[in-house]
Amino acid sequence: CFHASLGPLARRRDEEMFGLKAPKKEKRVKKENRSQPPVEAPYVPPKPKRTAKSLPDRTIDIFEGMTIAELAKRTGTAISILRDILINVGEKFDSEFDPISIDIAELVAMEVGVNVRRLHSTEGAVLEPRPAVVTVMGHVDHGKTSLLDALRQTSVAAMEAGGITQHLGAFVVKMLSGASITFLDTPGHAAFSAMRARGAAVTDIVVLVVAADDGVMPQTLEAMSHAKAANVPIVVAINKCDKSTANPERVRIQLGSEGLLLEDMGGDVQVVEVSATGKLGLDKLEEALLLQAEIMDLKARVDGPAQAYVVEAKLDRGRGPLATAIVKAGTLVCGQYVVVGAEWGRIRAIRDMLGDIAEKAGPAMPIVIEGLRGLPMAGDDIVVVDSEERARMLSAGRKKKSEKDRLRKINEERIETLDASEEVSERVEMPFIVKADVQGTVQAVTDALKSLNSPQVFVNIVHVGVGPISQSDVDLAQACGACIVGFNVRNPPSSVTQAANRANITIRLHRVIYHLLEDMGNLIVEKAPGTLETQVAGEAQVLNIFEIKGRSKLKDEDVKIAGCRVIDGRFTKSSIMRLLRSGEVVFEGSCMSLKREKQDVDAVGKGNECGLVIKDCDDFKIGDIIQCLEQVKRKPKFVSSESGAVRIEC
Q: Where is the composition biased (Basic residues) (predicted)?
């Protein structure tokens, strides 16, 4: 017998009273002894977890004096990991609420693998009025540079190759009223889209130049989109109003239909009719720009470290890397350590756009900086740092981050190429080495060449650089079989040219972007393998049918000969024949025999009669049409639009 004490029995009675039941004991099942091994289940791969955004694509905002806890929250990383990174870069870690400098915050974020955007606060700083930065944009050959020349009493467009602007220029113009305005002149050709985007990013006002005799064109619409993306006000200058074919009213209607609210139509966009060659309406344009600048109340911080933006960069033979920049805020002083993109240096000299040396540069002032260790990219920000050690550290971190991003991009492109190669049967590679005079032009030529990619030819930019073509470029081209493209660079030395000729390396030099793109497009078309297409080479009508009986019923078969007259094109014996009846295909096969007047021939021309035998075909009827088919290799076409945009059509 099993005896229970009174305590557990009373506890069970209370639980049942309140509706609580004790869990029932399950029966114990004896496991079976398995003599056979377990059956292996098929492997099911786990489903990949979908993330909202991968780390390399994330961008966070950082600022001076942010705490480690705030940085950990924005990067989504544990504080312990950030602490280890801080110790590695030589910073002390006392508390997670200690403020850190903006440079250290960028280093830590790059080590984690996150992109950063620097925020600069003007709280507590003294703001002073500054000149307006005005970017002149518009379609190619609409008179942008001529308008600037009329304002500055100079001639820049005449010095450019081909009479079109191919560089991004910055000038300070002293207006008739005594006020100063900083102008940025952008190229209008379709290949220089990135230059126009950089101009819109740093500007206060965009002057949209439209020719009165030409109207709104593709680059006009692109300039409007750049200005809207940068949230910059627009002043429209209708140029060439002195020409007999000018129609400013048509331009107003076109701009209004594109969504630009002009003052004449009740909007806030000013419109000025000018003539650059006749110097008409320049005073009204100046008045409109100064009015727009006064409405915007442009002010900037003068004291403290400078914030600047690189609009162009080039390599000078005597002075080394040069960066053309516009100061946004603060004062840039000669002798300061700066980090420009992934490059660093100590400012050796600051020159204005006339080439005169200046000790410092204030807001809205275009300058040329000397003393960088390497050539920066156009569009990089200039950051002033305290010491050489900090500059080296920040530059090394940025280079490491950019190298990681470059390798990741190459890997993604390789995967895309592999996916595309499954569909395309044959695709050849066309490697290029691009050399140009300035960094912005290098980028423009590279982007234009990449736009010539097609399903048949893959344009691979092996190397880009600023400066003349050297022996190292020829050696690299020989190693990978590349074509060297030089834009606005001087002719290479005879030793380099001879070495290229011996190695059978093609060097193409150009000074005008139109000619370069046309030449490279034709070169790519020649390299393309082409696609095989079936074309009808000739047509014949069946007039009579002849039948030849076989000599032996066991060995030879009966042969039917179609007596035809060629009514179009020509027939060749090596081609494929197609038999048509009432417009429908009855049979298709190779030609076994082609005779004319009992003589074997290889081809029969239009208007002649012939007899032909199609292999395995004996279903001829009088009135049938026989087509002669031939395989033709069709090459792609190089297409250039009126706006300057180019592409390869396959």
A: 22-31
